[in-house]
Every structure is written in C-alpha cells, then in structure tokens.
Amino acid sequence: MEYYSKAVDFAYNPTHARWLSPLLLGAESCLCAFIIFKIPYTEIDWEAYMQQVSQYLNGERDYTLIKGGTGPLVYPAAHVFIYSILYKLTEEGKNILVAQAIFAWLYLAILTLVMACYRKAKAPPYLFPLLVLSKRLHSIFLLRLFNDCFAVGFLFIAIYAYQHRIWTVGSVAFSFGVGTKMSLLLAAPAVGTILLQALPFKRAVNAAFLMAQVQLTIAFPFLPVNPVGYISRAFELSRQFLYRWTVNWKFLDEETFLSREFAIALLVAHLGLLLLFTTTRWLKPSRQSLPNFIMGLWQSRPLLMHQQVALRVTPTHVMTSVLGSMAIGLLCARSLHYQFYAYLAWSTPFLLWKSNLHPIAIYVVWAVQEWAWNVYPSTNGSSAAVVGCLLLQVLGVWWGTADDILGEDSSIDDKRRAHKHVE
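Above: the chain sequence. Below: its structure as tokens.
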C-alpha cells in the first residue's frame, strides 16, 4: 500500500515534474540523434522554401513574384527571414544534416518551454510522457523541417510570457508567430480576452498596436513595392487545399468537402464556439457577462477591482484559453495537413486533463489521435478519428472547466481534480 501511495503521488503531484522533465529531455536528445542518423529525410517543402528565400536574397521584393517548386510564397515575412538565416547556415539549403540538427535543437528548446508551461499550470506528471511520444511530431520537426515548427515555438513563448505576466514579450512573440504562419490567428480570440482582463484597457490596446507594429515592421521590405500583393499572399484566406491531401473531413465526399455550404457551416460553427467559450469560460476572471464586459471597457474601473480581475487571469486560465482557442480553430478548419499536428500534439494532453478525463482515458484518446495523424494517406476512419478527437477536446475542456475556481483558489481546484482522478 505504501508503494501504491508513492506511485499515485508521483503521478499526480506537480512538484515531481521538475525532475521528471530533465530525464525526458535527456531521453529525447538521444532519440532525436537516432532519428536523424537512422531514418531517411523526406523532402516536401524545404527545397521550395530555399528557392523562395533565394529570390528574396537576390533582391526580389514583390511578394507575388516569389515562387518555389511547390508554388507561390504564401507565408508572412517572418517565415522569409527565418529561412533566409537557415539558407545561409545550411550552404544554401544543401546541407540537410545541419538543417536537421538545427531543428533538433529547436524541438528540444520548445519542448523545454512546453514542459515549463505545463509545470506553471500545475499539470500532473503523468501527462509529461505524452509530450515526447509522438511519432508524427518528430517527423514534422526532424524529417520535414516545416515552418510550423517555428510558429508553434512562438506560440508557447507567448503562453509562457503571459503565464508570468510579461505581457509585452508575450505579445511580440505571438505577433512573430502570426508573422511566420497565419495559423496562429486561431488563438487570437483567447489572447484578446486575456489581455483585456489582465491589463487596463489602454494597455491592452497598446499591446494590440504593438502586435500590429511587429507585422508592419517585418513586412516593411515588401510593402513599398506591392502592399496589396503582400497582404493577399501572406494572409490569403480564400486559399483551398486539395481534397486528397486533407487529414480531416476525408470521410465526406469531395463534392460536399469543396462546397460553399460546408465552408459556411464550418465558419458558423467556429464563430458559435468562440462565442460560447468567450461568454461562459474565457471571461470568467471578469465575472461579467459579455455585454457588461464590453460596456465596462469604456468605463474607468477602480484600481482594486482591476487588480482582482487581473489576479484571476491565472497561468492555468491562460494556457487553457489559448490552447482551447487553437483546438476550436483546428476543429472548424476545412482542411488540415499533416504539419498542423505541430499545434495539436503538445496541446492535447493538457486539454484532455482539463476535460476531467481519467488518466487511462487520456492515454487512449491520445493514442487514437496519434494513430489517426500517422495514417497516410488519410482514410475515412482516420479522418473521422481526427475530427472526433478534436471535438472531444473542445467539448471536453468546455465541460471540464465549468466549475473551475480562478485566482487565489486555483490550487485548491487542482487538488480537487487530482483527488477525483485518484478516486
């Protein structure tokens, strides 16, 4: 019985994550080296990235004229700057081994940051092995070299900074992430509610202006030449992915998948879920309804009242809101490609935990999702599993956080959740 009690304590007590994390990182370092040296690299987008940035480095500033083997450049300017650096570090993109080593260090750095975010949110240690077990995530970083790797890194820098109330750094990091790949815009609604509750209204507006200034700064080399062309390519909202490459919704027939009605239905579902989470979950620190909250933004609040609201924007609330917003966006996306798993792999364990699922159920759902994202090409069954697991996370985190206690009592709520799992 003593050993059982120790095992339960090890699995649930967040303090043990501090020494478990270095052990997992050490094992991951060895695994990354093994993957790089033993598993063949797969060319997908790297050569196109290099072709595109070579045109930029040779002086091209019209975004609509920059193209690669897979088509035109369709990512914001931070992507160009990041891969321009990689272009120079990898002998114009020819030294793949150096590129893989850089991405291995990137993977380990982000994983370290993710674990720190989990610890700050008082997540139990039994979640941490799931952060290092994804075959698909290793492939995205080490064998594919996608730009999503940098985008998800900026996302977790923003989460970490917001958890530690370093609002300026978090806002700059988030904007750089959007400037790398606009997929991070899916988290923008949650980021907005966090800033509006944690900061005085004027400071929140300043944070928004700062993020806009970051976008203007990184786009500056291209805006004087063809501003409309840059915006239309870097933030192209009308682009449609091919049905045959999609990971989700493959269980629908192609005609339905490509229909305007389906796109509108997904948009309505996305907006509806955002409204639901905003009104019932993300505004919990303010303890106000959405109309009252909006009206209150234009009224000066007593300093003490604002401080009380700000203190209720806890590290757990920050992480739940941002990752939840990303999951909602991924669920309602018409087409996901395999690299989008970078935004989900490190989010799923946390969201399933916040759904109040039993640890065994968490591992089962994680395994089903991991299997589904490793089926290539996707099938009716695998795509249904992708959508089903996302739906479970979105609805689960909404249901599981209904009774969350914010602010000074959050530690009590975490203990209550752990005790419930043990029972």
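Confidence is low (pLDDT under 50) at residues 408-423.
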